[in-house]
């Protein structure tokens, strides 16, 4: 079972190393929950907490992913799938979020499970999604004008990854989002006694735009083809 209708065709994206397939609740949610709660993967990510499939559906799947501006992919590592079966090759998730069809803008979000970090997985997953979003329709892409990468301002690893993938740093949006779990900046309760205030974060904002894509694309393809 997949989420609601995305603005665009959520087709399978793949190369010889990985596949991005539409996230299927029946196939992928239990592994995602296990990884998130075993490895504290939401430290820097503004997801609502979920410890069970029911909480995932209630707090994230139904209220967020059923919107037409949202879609979620499961990352499948082909090498692992060939060796031990696809059930063990689910390596993380990639998302297109806050998509505006009118403005031709989207944001990508990435979550890689620890066993697949510092491998070819993240680079190829992000590269495939960039090709899909920024390549023109004549080349099989969506031809969007802007793709964003946003992360917690204190998430140094994510900021390095954005720059490595060719994104341009635009600045820090202060108090940009709440951060239900994990690291957060000082809460209002410490400042003025407000009770029950959601913790917040400052967000580092990066982007790649259509008018620089032709220059950046070969560099990203070269990264994807590197041996790890």
TrEMBL record:
InterPro entries (UniProt xref): Acyl_CoA_acyltransferase, GNAT_dom, Ribosomal_N-acetyltransferase
A single GO molecular function term of this UniProt record: protein-N-terminal-alanine acetyltransferase activity
Signal peptide (from-to): none
Pfam (any one): Acetyltransf_3
Residues of the N-acetyltransferase domain: 20-168
Record-linked SUPFAM superfamilies: Acyl-CoA N-acyltransferases (Nat) (SSF55729)
Transmembrane segments: none
Designated name of the protein: Acyl-CoA N-acyltransferase
Organism phylogeny: Eukaryota, Fungi, Dikarya, Ascomycota, Pezizomycotina
